[in-house]
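[Amino acid chain]
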Amino acid sequence: MTPLEILKTQFGYDSFRTGQAEVIDDIMQQKGVLAIMPTGGGKSLCYQIPALLQDGITLVVSPLISLMKDQVDALNENGIPATFINSSLDYQAINDRFNQAAAKAVKLLYVSPERLDSDYLARLEQLPISLVAIDEAHCISQWGHDFRPSYLNLTNAIEQLPSQPTIVALTATATPKVAQDIMSRLDIEQEVKTGFSRPNLAFKVVKDQDNDKFLVDYLKENPDQSGIVYASTRKEVERLTKLLQRKHVSATMYHGGLNQEERRQNQEDFLYDRTPVMVATNAFGMGIDKSNVRFVIHAQVPGSLESYYQEAGRAGRDGLPSEAILLFRLSDVQIQHFLIDQSERDEANKQREYDKLQAMSQYANTQECLQKYILNYFGEDGEACGQCSNCLDDREAIDITVDVQKVLSCVIRMNQRFGKNLVAQVLTGSNVARVKQLHFDELSTYGIMKQASQKSVAELIDFLTAAGYLFADGGQYPVLRVTELGGEVLHGNQQVFRKVAIRATKALPVNSELFEALRSLRREFAEKQQVPPFVIFSDKTLRDMCSVMPVDEDEMLTVKGIGANKMAKYGTAFLQVIDLFRDEAES
C-alpha cells in the first residue's frame, strides 16, 4: 500500500496536511529529518504511517506517560498494534510487552527517555527497530524552553542499536537556534518546517480588568465547552478552582502537589469530558492529545513565548475555531522573575530565561498582530491574522507622542543605565530614597508625568519596548536604552499612537442539537471502551457528520476521520442517530 492509501483506510483522511508527505518520503528514503509543525498539525502521522509500511518496529520516545497511553489507545482503536513501556507497569508487564515486540506483534513501541538505560537498551538491541521517532524534540536543546537532561542520552542510546534506524525528530516550538541544535545533536540533515501559524486560533490579550470576573464571565458564556486555565503556582491553581466551583462552573485542577491518584482522576475527568474545565500549572498538558479543547486561558503570564505558544496550541487541535487568551498583569511578570531567581539554573541559563520573559512581556504589550508577533519570534514572516484582539481593535488610536518624548528624554538623562521601575519613579516624582540618593530629583524630567501612576507609566514603557522605541538590555535587572526609532521620536521626526486596553471577548458558538446527541453517543462508547471520547471520534469528525448527514456506510466513509476500522465499530450506531434527526427534520 502507499502512504496515501494507508492514510485513507486506517485513519479516514483523503489528503495529507502540509509537510506530512514530505516527512514520510524522507523517512521512507531512510533520511533523518526534523519536522517542525504547529500543535495539531499532524506530527504523529508522520511516523505512524511509515511504521505500517516498514518491516521493523518503530520506537517512539515520548516524555509523558499520558501521551503514550492516549496515542496507543488511538492506534489500537484504528486497528494498529501498538504498546508502551514505562514506570506505570510492573516487571512482568514490561517483560510481556518486550516479548510482544520481539515477536513482531506490535508495530509501534512507546518509551520515555528516562527509560533508555542499560537494562532497557539491552532489550531494545534485540528488537528489529527500523525507525526512532523523538517527540517533543525541543527538550534535547539547551536553548529550548523545556530542556531535559534525560534527552541528552538519546544519541548514545540510538548509536548502540545494531539496526541503525532512521531518526525523525518532531516538535511544535523551535526557534532557528533550537532547530539547529536538535539537528546537530541527532546528526540530522533534513528539515521540514510547515510554519507556526494556527489560522483557527484567535489570540487575545486582556489587560486592566478584574481577571477573576473576566474568567468567571467567560466560562459562564461558554458552558460545556472544554478548556484549560493555566496559572503559574499551585496556590493560584487551587484558588481559581475553588472560585470557579463556588460560581457553579464545573472545574477540576492539576498540579505537582496533588497525589498521583488525584492527578490521574482529575485528568481522566477532563479527558473524558466529565469536567469541561481544567485549571492547572504547566505540569499539565504536554502529551495531552485532547482534540476538542476550545479555549486556553492563561490567568497568569508564562515564562516564555515558547511555553505560551505550546500551551495555547492545545486549543483547537481538531482545526475548529478556538481561542487563546492571556490575562496580563505586571505583578505576574514579577512572579516569573521570582521563579527564575529561585531556580537552580546557572547564571547563563538564568540570563536566557530573563530574555525569554522580556519577549513574553513585549508580546502582551505590542499593538501589532499577535499571531504575526509570535511568527516573527520563531523566525518566520507572516501576514496579519485578522482575528486576534489587536487586529479586531478598530478604535481610534491616541497620539501619545509627547508622553513618549518625556519617557525617552528621561531615559537618556539617566544615562541609559537604569530599569523600568526607577524611570517610572523619576517621571512620576517619587520621593523614594534611591531617587534622591542618585540626585534624579534634580533632573528636568523629574515629576513631569506626576499626574500619572507609576503603574501606568511602567505599562507605557513596556509598550514602547514592545514597539521598538526602547530596548531592555540585560537579564535579571534590564536597563533601558533608546533605539534608533526612539531617537526619531525624540527629534520630532516620528509620531507614536496607542490604543486603550482590549476588552472582553464574545462567547464561542453554541453546538447544535445533533452535535450534542452525537457527543452523547460518543461518550457512551468512550465509557465502555475506557478511553477518552476524542479517541472514538474528534469534535471535527462529529461536526463533519452534522454537515454531511450521511445516509449509508459509503457516505459515512467520506466523513473526515472515519476509516474502515472505525466504520465497522461505530458507524451503524452514529448513522442511526443521524437518521433520527433527519426524520424529525422531514416530518
